[in-house]
Amino acid sequence: MKLLSLNVEGVIHLERVMPLIKMELPDVLCMQEAGTPYQDELEALGYQVTFAPRSIRTHADEEFTDGLLFASRLPATVTSFNFYTPHAGVLLEEFNEETGRYNMPGQVLLGAVVHNKKTYQIGTTHFTWTRNGDVPCAAQQIDMQNFLTLVHKFPAHIMCGDFNIPRATNRLYNDVVAVYRDEIPRTVTTSLDAEFHRLKDIPEKSYLLKQYVVDYVFSQPGYTVQGIRQIFGVSDHAATLCEIV
Q1: Cα atoms in the Cβ-side hemisphere of radius 13 Å centred on 158
Q2: Which of 3, 150, 185, 237 is deepest in the core (most CB within 10 A)?
Q3: Angle, CA 209 vertex, CA 238 and CA 242 arms, to 5°
Q4: pLDDT tens string 40-51
């Protein structure tokens, strides 16, 4: 079964992302920061799509809803969970300097996907952001405890997505790999795209584009992940493509 995970940065890269999807046709597709236009595009390709709205954003002076997206070409039952819920409803994206949080939920979509008469549990998340990627903010620390408590209740599974936790420096990475196996090869040094990521325009931070792995495929016993590769040039993060057996 082919899995593709990608932070698509809203609707900015739609014209680059969709040709990749059409070329690879992954069995399961997990998107973070997905704008609602992706739902129609993917359903037209025959995908069953589950969308968990997160916030209202703007691009080219037009509003859109972004969120977590799980799409499958195989039979799937998808359930949405929150490890952090700030309020009811979906609000215009806003960052609170006092709390160090965006006003959006922390979410997990978990899909039970049937392939060759076997059920695979595949989850995706977009974990809490921290201003200094190397140092977990208070919100990240709290949410990590809640995230791990939540996923402990799941059957053995794959978890993929943008974790906002560089594995070389952020200590919360150790908490994650106490529960999961990191399937991203150690030869991979970054998952940020230097062509499109906003850090390229901040000279004092542009070096981070070469050393931040924040997009992962994590596994638990019972799953084998093989053939992992990154695809750059489609968004501000690299797409991660792999096979699950």
Answers
A1: 29
A2: 237
A3: 25
A4: 999 999 999 999
The two tokens of residue 89 are 């409803």
Q: What is the pLDDT of residues 102-155, one digit of tens each?
A: 999 999 999 999 999 999 999 999 999 999 999 999 999 999 999 999 999 999
What does the alpha-carbon distance between residue 212 and residue 236 come to, in Å, rounded to a whole number? 12
Cβ neighbours of residue 215 under 8 Å, at least 6 residues apart? Answer: 5, 6, 7, 160, 161, 162, 163, 184, 191, 237, 238, 240
pLDDT confidence tier of residue 205, bands split at 50, 70 and 90: confident
Q: For the full predicted model, state whether its pTM sits above 0.85.
A: yes
Q: Supply the DSSP symbol for 120.
A: E
Signed CA dihedral, 202, 31, 214, 54: sign only = positive
